[in-house]
Amino acid sequence: MMMIEPKRFLKFQLPFRLFLLLAQIVLVFSFLWSSWTHLNNQFFFIKSIADYQLVGGNTSIFLAVVLPILHMCLGVMLLDGKWLQFGAEVAAVLLFFYLAAQLSVLISGKQVGCSCFAFDDTPIGVYSMVRTSLLFALAFTLAFFYRRNRSSRILNGRADSLNLNDLGTG
């Protein structure tokens, strides 16, 4: 009976690991792409933040400077196994706030361009909400399962360094 249990577990382990790796790759690409596009045209980004009308002018400028750098840092942290958990947690929180801001604009009926990843002024709608929700779900899933695995390893006395290869084996 002990021989059957590991085989059954291994059948689902590889697809789950691949899903987590795919989530990591999608998040890294999304944050690095967002950082690159916003750093290339910060004036457009300042305008798009101001169009949301959630913060004042000086705060819009501050966010237009800080967010692309934060996106770049998140992309790098999500690449590195040592910072993966923290990066995924920060990404989930940030994407939650983006989702709330988009929902606020959608409810108020304002015609604001998302400008999340490119220099377009496509108004916030169902597509941008679904995209942001999916990115949030990926970041939350990555943070949750990475934290869960780390907690189980610490409780079992195996608190050595972790990486994606260790996920699902704790």
Order of helices and strands: HHHHH
Structural class: mainly alpha
Structurally, the number of domains stands at 1
Q: Distance between termini?
A: 20 Å
Give the biggest sheet. none
Which helices and strands appear, and what pairs or packs with what?
Blueprint: H1 4-40, H2 42-51, H3 57-79, H4 84-108, H5 126-155
Helix pairs in contact: 1-3, 1-5, 2-3, 3-4, 4-5
Task: Write a concise synopsis of the structure shown.
The protein has helices at 4-40, 42-51, 57-79, 84-108, 126-155. It has 170 residues and is mainly α.
Q: Could you walk me through the main structural features you see in this protein, from its secondary elements to its overall organization?
A:
It is a single chain. By secondary structure, the protein is mainly α. It has one domain (30-166). The chain has five helices and no strands. It has helices at residues 4-40, 42-51, 57-79, 84-108, 126-155. Helix 2 crosses helix 3. The longest helix has 37 residues, at 4-40. The radius of gyration is 19 Å and the shape is globular.
Structural key phrases:
170 residues; mainly alpha
